[in-house]
Amino acid sequence: MQATTMDPAEEPPSMLWGLDPIFSAFARLYVRDILQMTESTQVPGIYFYNSHPVYKVDVLGTVVYKREREDFFCYGVDDGTGVINCLCWKKYQLKEEEDPGKSGGKHSDAAKGGFDPVAELKKLREGQKNRSCLEIGELLRIRGLVKTSRQQREIMASTYYKVNDPMMALQIAWMMEVPQLYRQCYDKPLQLQLNADGDTTISSLSKATNIIKDFFKQKSVSRFRPYDVQDLLQPLISSQPQTTSADQEPVASVSACQQLRQLLKETLELLQNEGIIYRKVKSQDEVYNVTAQDTDLLIAVQDIIREDSKREKYAEKGCHVLHILSAVKQRYSLNVSKAALELVLKSLECNSDIVSTTDNHYTVF
Q1: pLDDT of the residue at 328
Q2: Helix-, strand-, coil-residue percentages of the chain, each rounded to 5
């Protein structure tokens, strides 16, 4: 792979990285995304996924190749999206150590009639060895630092072990949890900025977006007009009176009103870009539909996939997302965006109404 670096103009200042909770956690990213992350120009060894700083990851996958050296194992781990090298040191787990029984006979004599700490320690070490030495085809859980060595991305393990999962329960739980983390954390860029005093704050636009999203969830809103949510953003607008002289009226009310309208406009645009909302019909009556609560849209998408999957052209792989988008625009609304459609598809798939056959192809059960 070719090592890529983050554009300095787009990279957030390093002093803000600690405000991102992902920075302090082992990010459960897909191998494909780990391999494609861009490296920081400020601090080598720090990488960015969707503006989130990442330097340690948590991966679950199948061992597809193995190399052993005196001090370490090198496993190739495949999670279904790609293969990454994992360097696993074994000096504490597998190297020959002095037999505790040779240090003296006191322990052996004391343990003849009961608990034998030497024997138990030997069992623990044997178990640790079995969990640390894997063969091709076995399942590996690994946590560690992301490194780039000789233009090759790899993981330097801090913890790794073999996972016994004969019923695939852990793998299924992992496959259900990781997409949720992407939707809730990794795919949402954290917007940070410095205020006039040099303190770090979350931007007003990010706060406004979160306020309106919480309002949708709490009230189960399916349709709304801008004035329905405008008052929710009022606390984010500074309303300190400003006067030019003692005889003049305060003019801050006009300025605050303009700020509120501008913030609302930018927030609605951002929510539309993310697919959270859309306008089914563009008219003077500015009505927005909340994608997740629009049952008519969900039914329309499901019907399109069900009907078109029966056609010979789509019988094998299912309907491509661009075909579904085109059909939705023709049969339901021209204003449905790809981002909104992807949210609908994810919702239908989580409810087991549809299934993804390959990348960007969907069909019914």
Answers
A1: 95
A2: 40, 20, 35
